[in-house]
């Protein structure tokens, strides 16, 4: 366990014991993590008294005012090397996940929900102001100033949220993995297209690719909900074929408005076999080492979450040879010119043309070429998977 993980666990345990709300805990954990990453492990102390949780971080390096102003949660007090935050305690302890990654995802969900609520409050307040007379113009100006302050504060949170939502590739043995991620809205680093990948207890690598309907914060929350649910079910050992349908059933009452296409991949490092379960998602592209291309379609089409009769009806199974390349993606890659079929044909040609490049370059190169002309802007995720069993130790 790294120093940063241990530090986050201590902060979370203190917040949980004091009943600090999840969104406040998330901002504090993020602020402490950012400070810990800038130097040697700092000293942490916590005190709960008079309805307040006080968290003090003592660093071996001074923290200037400029650095403090960039933190997602500003400290209430402290000198150059010691910073203290005071947070309101709750009515009682609150649960927090012991696993660092799960806790981080829960905190990201809380931040997204809070940002959603703040955005709704701002819209309602603007609507009320619009119905008043001109005598409240000064209040409107003040509101715009508050909006600007909120945008700056959210920008800091979103930059960290962006990194949290783009996990680096897990260890995958003979499989080389690379990803390109780009939201459609440049002022928001998140969108409805998200991916998740992790190693299962049996050593196989699981990949989830989700395209939630919509854009911005709400679609991000929906996509996060889907990836988190699938990860939980996969780690519990539910059959690969059933994951999309079971996730849809689980979320039907919790998020009745949620609609998302889903593609699942399961990579077996021992055999080179790849399995795909598809729920209304664009078909994977296979480029063999010999240069042949194929769109990997299931015998029976599956349906995504929120669609009628959701689930993956049949699986696609392939055993990859040395050098074979698979590209999975969201529809933003092939719909930029509004013609999906033409986009698929262009992608097949581009994947064949660039398959000889290093795996790490392929997602960015494909996105650059495919999105050279954009008539329909959309979030885009591109993931490259290459099987290189004879180069594991190279």
Entry summary:
This protein is α+β, with helices and mostly antiparallel strands and 394 residues long.
Could you describe the 3D structure shown?
The chain is an alpha+beta fold and 394 residues long. It has 3 domains: 3-88, no CATH class; 100-163; 169-391, Phosphatase 2c, domain 1. Helix content is 38%, strand content 21%. Strand 1 (43-49) and strand 2 (52-58) form a beta hairpin. Helix 2 packs across helix 4. The longest helix has 31 residues, at 100-130. The radius of gyration is 23 Å and the shape is globular. The model has no long low-confidence stretch (mean pLDDT 88). Residues 175-387 form the PPM-type phosphatase domain. Keywords: Hydrolase, Initiation factor, Protein biosynthesis. InterPro entries: Bact_Sigma-Reg, PPM-type-like_dom_sf, PPM-type_phosphatase-like_dom.
Chart the SSEs and their pairings.
Elements: H1 3-18, H2 22-37, E1 43-49, E2 52-58, H3 65-69, E3 82-88, H4 100-130, H5 137-164, E4 175-182, E5 193-199, E6 205-212, H6 216-235, H7 243-251, E7 260-268, E8 273-279, E9 285-287, E10 293-295, E11 316-319, E12 325-329, H8 340-354, H9 362-370, E13 380-387
Antiparallel strand pairs: 1-2, 2-3, 4-13, 5-6, 6-7, 7-8, 8-11, 9-10, 9-12, 12-13
